[in-house]
Every structure is written in structure tokens, then in C-alpha cells.
Amino acid sequence: MGQKILARLSPDDILLIKQKVFGGRDDVSVDAMIVQGAYVSEEIRSKMGLSIVNPPENIHRMQRGNIYVGDTYSANMVGSILKKVGIEFLSAGKYLDFGCSSGSLTRILKAAEPDSQFFGVDPIKSSIDWASKNIEGATFKVSNVEPPVDFPDGYFNGVTAISIWSHPFINSRPPRI
Ligand SMILES: C[S@@+](CC[C@H](N)C(=O)[O-])C[C@H]1O[C@@H](n2cnc3c(N)ncnc32)[C@H](O)[C@@H]1O
């Protein structure tokens, strides 16, 4: 997915990131380019559709770190699985990230597929409130622990659910975070 995001930069932008952050080196990974590039300038960040606004300590997210634009690891995993099974994101599809926490995957998927609509649900209200306020271009909703989710049947073209039932709610009480 990173390649799709990086592809929106000009050769001059790419050169600037390499010079400013990586001492002109060429052997830099795509993810390092997009993550570090997002911190080089607002213009580069905006071309990539990324944001460097990140949840504070009291808001749930799995990945921590100061230089962070979202969950590039899971986004790449989704991208490579889809490639393996020969499925592509539809150009104006609707996609749900089930158990999205504070939207770390949603924000990268939206950057990679800007013409599609992205949604995230999670029972943790503070995460959803943070994502709703801070992640542009996606819709977040608090979900119940038990089905159903609050969308019509057949609404989505695809659903991701990363690392959810390994961290279940017990007796409908939120996990300690
Ligand atoms: C380990 S975190 C993973 C968060 C995110 N998917 C990621 O990979 O960064 C597990 C998430 O699943 C959510 N969750 C747990 N039980 C759920 C349920 N029954 N329905 C929806 N989300 C649930 C939690 O609130 C939490 O945000």
C-alpha cells in the first residue's frame, strides 16, 4: 500500500526526502520514505494524504512511537493478501475496519485508496471519539461487543479485522488499556 501513497509524490519530493532524512541514500524502504516523508513538510504530507496527528497516551493504539503516521505494517499485510488472491480495492468502494481502535489502519488505507470510503468500528468509545475528531475522510462509530454492526447488510465491499478476538471484551467490559 505504501507504494500507492509514495506514487503521488514528484521525483523532486522523493529527492528532497532522501536528502533531508536519509543523507541522499537510495536504499530506503517505501514505508520509511512515507513515514519520514510525512514529517519533512506539510506539502509532502498532504500529497500523500497522511497525517502526523497521533493519539495521546491515554487513547488506545497498538503501535507506539513518536514518528508515526498509522499502521503501515497491517496495511501492507492487507495489500499483499489481496494481491495473492487477485482482488483489488474498488475505485469507489466501501470498506470497514472492524475493531479499528483509534483508526491506525483506516488512515493508511484511506491514504492509499483516496477514492474509496472507509469506516471503522470499535467498542472503545474514547478511541472512536479520537479517530472521529482527528482522522479526516473516514467515518468512525462505536460498536456493540455483540453483533450486529450498525450498517445495512451488504453495505461493504470488504472488511478488515486485525487482531480482534485475541483481545476480546470479557462480559462486555472494556479491556484494561
Ligand atoms: C489488539 S486491538 C487491535 C486494534 C487494531 N485492529 C489494530 O490492529 O491496531 C483489539 C481491538 O479489538 C477491539 N474489540 C474487541 N472485541 C471486539 C468486538 N467484539 N467487536 C469489535 N471490536 C472489538 C478492541 O476494542 C480493540 O480496539
Automatic annotation (TrEMBL):
SUPFAM superfamilies in UniProt: S-adenosyl-L-methionine-dependent methyltransferases
Coiled-coil regions, chain positions: none
Ranges where the Methyltransferase domain occurs: 96-167
Domain of life: Bacteria
Any Pfam family matching the protein: Methyltransf_25
Descriptive protein name: Methyltransferase domain-containing protein
